[in-house]
Task: structure prediction
Amino acid sequence: MIALALLAVAQETVSIDQAVARALKNYAAVEVSEERVRAAAAGISLARTAYLPRADFYSQFNRGSRNNIFGILLPQSTLPSISGPPSPENDMTSVWGSALGFLVSWEPFDFGLRAANVGVAEAGKRRAEAAQKRTEYEIAAMTADAYVTLLAAEEMTAAAKASVERATAIERVIEALTKAELRPGADLSRAQAERAVAETQVVQAEQAIAAARASLAQFAGPVALTRNLGAPPGALGEGGAHPALAEQSAAVDETKAREKALEKAYAPKIAVQGAVYARGTGANPDGTTLGGVNGLGPNIANYVVGLTITFPALSKPAIDAERAQRAAEERAHAARLKQLRQDLAAQLELAKAKLDGARKIAALLPVQRSAAQAAFDQSTARYKAGLGTIAEVAEAQRLVAQIAADESLARVAIWRALLHVATAQGDLRPFLAAADAEAVK
Result:
């Protein structure tokens, strides 16, 4: 109990827009999306490094036999290579060998492949940024919904407690009549049962508060509602581009960029290269060896400057297959974009219908409350006069309690419907601004 009391004291009271701001600052999913944007930005820098020349330094020191023969080996990565004339005999005498080299290679032009790859990286960054905005938007929407849910739970609890008070007042009246032997004991039992039902509803409402508070704490931390929302506005402003649509559109653009890069892949690679290298060996062409540490250091040097051209002649079928794959992915993303537009349009129409219904119900509830209260007062008076039954009083009391609960939730229901409209439109700022403005009043 002490821990719960301390927790309650530690809870910061926040408005709905403050709760959303806390969630966007502290919820881990936002940090995940931010790091993905940073990774995509680093990918652009990585793609641009392809424009730079490549420089490699190589050194080697070894000791081994020097037997060499005529013959050809197909390209492989297992057998070490050897240079020089063939050996007259199979002599396993070992000698020192060494090599040092420095190679610079640069592609002066690439038929647009590097630019296309940079375009792919930039499209990936735009998609990551759109995903981040969509993530932030969803977290904001869920936080606002959790806030309104907690508000509704608190309203329901207040209505349930008011119902307990009414049931207790009726119970006292019936208890007095029972003690005066003007009413049977069964009526008192019925009144006690009605009070117990109302108390049970209070417990259930408090459980709903605990669940709603836990849901809100998931996003905004342990907070309490700073104040109630006022009268809902007549309408909200139109939203902008929905973040989910922007992200999916970015996915389409990224796939198109990958297709463009594949169009440039089937082209020759032209590189200007220059190298300086030196080798050392402890073996002579006549088959003799120098002995000692001869060959441990390079003793013969060379340099070379040239132009190399490489063309992937048989890679076109693989490139065409990958292009077909990317084209299919583009069509899938485009179809998904179309589906999202349809789903969001349907969600918006449904939210508007719920908003219209919530407003109409809220307009009818005052009349219902007045009629229900009059019926309750009349049934109570008839019961006290001995003209009515406890069942009539209980039924009228339940009707009053139900309408009181509906009326307390009517305003929150309109705010929830407004939130759903804003969520479907893709912009929560008009809703949050209206909620904050009304709460201040």
Q: What stands out?
A: The chain has a mean pLDDT of 85.
